Amino acid sequence: MDISHLLNSSVSNMEPSLVRELLHYSQQPNIISLAGGLPDDALMPAYPDVNQLLDSRQYGASDGEAVLQQHIAQILAGRGLDRQKAVLVTNGSQQGLDIVSRSVLDNSATILTEQPTYLAACQVFRLQGANIQGVTSDEFGMSVKDFEEKLEEYKPKAVYMIPNFQNPSGHCYSLERRKEIASLLEKKNVLLIEDDPYGELCYEEIKLPPISSMLKTSSWVYLGSFSKVLWPGLRVGYMACDEELMPYFEKVKQATDLHTNRLAQMMVSHFLGSGQYLLHIAKLKAVYKKKRDAMADALLKYLGNQISYRIPAGGMFFWVRLPEGVSSMLVMERALQEQVLVLPGKPFFSSDHMLDDAYLRLNFTRVNEEDLDRAIYTLSLVVKGLSVD
Ligand code: PMP
């Protein structure tokens, strides 16, 4: 049956997310997966007894459960974001991306992103028909020069950034870079969409303010999530923003799904209120730091000077540049034949003219150290095999 006439142009042209397509392989036994951006199952707290959590089974408020909003406001205040009057609880930060896109982007809008960037954010922006322009990025985030030029050239409506331990590159904006970006945003009055699901997973002694907290006259949206530190399957995230924007976002949330699942919100709220949260984060950081170091050791031991990468100061990923001429797509296919799942870097490049097939994104938080070592050893055989093909 031909259904092409039924679909609108955004959906009929939509590409699937490679990450989600590959996720089903990671559930197969015998596969070691370095592909997802997933927490270690062993570190996830047990669910609380759900019957104790909610005294009403009715519909809830669109902006979220008040008790959870208060916990989130406290977390945000700790990050220097205490100006927001309200917090909107979302169905993961992915829904925050959807809400802000629907609210501000349309067919004629340009949005700037880092290059490479989180591919599912681009999926959302494309669904709105927006024109995505990538800005070249280095270890400290967006190049200020290229950002300034693209602001001039495209007159974008918004800019999407992941300043802390970015997905996929692991980069973290320095304080200077944050200040430079903030000052340009103020000058041009462009909306900042700051996505920060990894900020708490920091393995070095650094504490950097969100760029949103540095803005005085231009608009910002800050997205957070409990997916990387608690339970991704519960789908609880949040957004904070300028007071003026919030009523519009709330209406879009109403129209989208009425409200986020109340039980899921109360489960998160219960954990935040239990006094265990900070201890839990400290434990995640200690375990993930060890795993990060184990991956760095394995990369050095098995692939040595064949590849290049930086050791990320936080987050969940190594972003590895392959030897000249080795395709990341081919590495992914061959490694899968050897029961190791890795993610090719190509889909993370949002602008066609910047497509780069030379990178892999490797997750170090999900698997144990023994499997990490085995996976990198296997990967090294695949890469060496392709280097001499
Ligand atoms: N933003 C970034 C940068 C991410 O890496 C992810 C998850 N991979 C999300 C948003 C979405 O997270 P969630 O919807 O689970 O909160």
TrEMBL record:
<dbReference type="GO" id="GO:0008483">
    <property type="term" value="F:transaminase activity"/>
</dbReference>
<protein>
    <submittedName>
        <fullName>PLP-dependent aminotransferase family protein</fullName>
    </submittedName>
</protein>
<dbReference type="InterPro" id="IPR015424">
    <property type="entry name" value="PyrdxlP-dep_Trfase"/>
</dbReference>
<keyword id="KW-0808">Transferase</keyword>
<dbReference type="Pfam" id="PF00155">
    <property type="entry name" value="Aminotran_1_2"/>
</dbReference>
<feature type="domain" description="Aminotransferase class I/classII large">
    <location>
        <begin position="41"/>
        <end position="376"/>
    </location>
</feature>
<dbReference type="InterPro" id="IPR050859">
    <property type="entry name" value="Class-I_PLP-dep_aminotransf"/>
</dbReference>
<keyword id="KW-0032">Aminotransferase</keyword>
<dbReference type="InterPro" id="IPR015422">
    <property type="entry name" value="PyrdxlP-dep_Trfase_small"/>
</dbReference>
<keyword id="KW-0663">Pyridoxal phosphate</keyword>
<dbReference type="InterPro" id="IPR004839">
    <property type="entry name" value="Aminotransferase_I/II_large"/>
</dbReference>
<dbReference type="InterPro" id="IPR015421">
    <property type="entry name" value="PyrdxlP-dep_Trfase_major"/>
</dbReference>
